[in-house]
Design brief:
The chain is an alpha/beta fold. It folds into 2 domains: 3-175 and 360-373, Glycogen Phosphorylase B (Rossmann fold); 183-349, 3-Layer(aba) Sandwich (Rossmann fold), CATH 3.40.50. It is 42% helix and 16% strand. It has 14 helices and 14 strands. A 7-stranded parallel beta sheet has the order 3-2-1-4-5-6-7, with helices on both faces. A 7-stranded mixed beta sheet has the order 8-11-10-9-12-13-14, with helices on one face. The chain is globular.
């Protein structure tokens, strides 16, 4: 009898973090892959990933529309609750033998709680890491709800074990998103016009001489300041005499402030060197990053994939506070001058050597093999 492994994708970056595992699971004998799309992964405004999943040949077994609009702390809590209700029904219908949840976004709490209360073995990808904001609480909560753990670094493995998880259930596999980065390094050329393929909003820019990528998300415990924080980043990028490819934020509380800062920039006509995108396929996005001069903002891609790619990064503020990073990262506060100075320093430095802190590009097959053979247990083997 096939083992039914259910992967729940809840947000734009989640598919990149699990794609190579899904590709490997699809080819693994004795495994039936189930795919559930939920929350912001289904919404065009946040970069609907369904088209990319379908293009890769995966069947979507269920769709869970659970996002309560509003981009606030209240709507985040309600979205989590609604997702819990809906995913419990999905799991009851699909009857998976194992559920896989990814990383630390608030929507993943719905997956973890539903699986745990239904006594379905839960596998957690990317646990044990340290960051700021609500993600820290969510990530470690899921660790305690999960039955097996597939971590990216040795430090993350140590942290999960220190939280009381049994060492024989904590596997250092590397991060699956690095697998895409490794493929991109082998075929780095951008064989398409990014403006024609992905549209977006803003001037068609000449990026042949180089460009910056700006990707900034709200910090939930700093949500009221999100607009001012984005204003500082936009002002800093205006001081850099290069095109800027800017991506819209995720749906965390405070994202409306970041979106408002972008719209005001455009309305005031200060966006001559900016172009704005919602989403791209993971491999296209990483090729874009690889060719860039620097990524600025607070996305984990600057720390994970860009460390492997050697792309200079300026990490702003507290969202990634405490996360392990390679030599490609410089830090800056929410100050335009400080951000611009760090960006200029990275521009002068140029690309870095590849750092394999988060993996070697083979995490997906490792995780898939483990998911296909790990004991299906829900009783905790604690290590206190």
């Amino acid at each position: 009898m096939s083992r039914k492994v259910c992967i729940v994708v809840t947000a734009r970056p989640s598919y990149s973090r699990i794609r190579s595992t899904m590709l490997s699971l699809r080819e693994l004998p004795g495994v039936e892959l189930q795919v559930v799309l939920a929350a912001s992964s289904l919404l065009d405004v946040y970069g609907n990933v369904a088209e990319f999943i379908l293009k890769d040949g995966f069947e979507v077994n269920a769709r869970v529309y659970s996002v309560v609009d509003g981009q606030s702390r209240l709507t985040s809590a309600k979205t989590t609750g609604l997702g819990l209700i809906e995913l419990a029904t999905v799991f009851d219908n699909l009857k998976p033998d194992l559920v896989v949840t990814i990383a630390d976004r608030f929507e993943t709490m719905s997956t973890a709680v539903a699986a745990a209360y239904m006594h379905i073995p839960l596998a957690h990808i990317q646990g044990g890491e340290v960051t700021g904001s609500i993600d820290e609480k969510v990530r470690h909560s899921i660790t305690k709800l999960a039955d097996t753990h597939y971590v990216s670094t040795e430090q993350a493995r140590e942290y999960v074990i220190r939280m009381g998880e049994s060492p024989d259930r904590v596997f250092k596999t590397g991060c699956p998103s690095i697998d895409i980065a490794a493929d991109v390094v082998k075929q780095p050329d951008i064989a398409f016009d990014i403006f024609e393929k992905y549209g977006g909003v803003g001037n068609i820019l000449d990026i042949s001489a180089g460009y910056f990528v700006l990707m900034q998300h709200p910090v939930t415990n700093e949500a009221p300041a999100s607009r001012q924080q984005m204003d500082a980043s936009l002002e800093a990028m205006q001081r850099i005499n290069l095109p800027v490819l800017c991506f819209w934020p995720n749906l965390d509380a405070g994202s409306d402030g970041i979106s408002r800062a972008i719209r005001i920039l455009r309305e005031r006509g200060h966006d001559e060197n900016f172009h704005f995108f919602k989403n791209m396929a993971g491999n296209d996005f990483l090729r874009l990053l690889l060719r860039s001069k620097c990524i600025v903002g607070n996305s984990s891609v600057a720390i994970r994939e860009c460390s492997f790619l050697g792309v200079p990064a300026v990490n702003i503020g507290t969202r990634q506070q405490g996360r392990e990073h390679g030599p490609n990262v410089l830090h800056a506060g929410y100050d335009a001058g400080e951000i611009a100075a760090a960006a200029s320093k990275q521009l002068a430095h140029g690309h870095y050597e590849s750092c394999h802190l988060y993996g070697d590009g083979q995490a997906g097959p490792r995780i898939a093999k483990l998911l296909g053979e790990v004991p299906l247990e829900t009783a905790k083997k604690l290590n206190y």
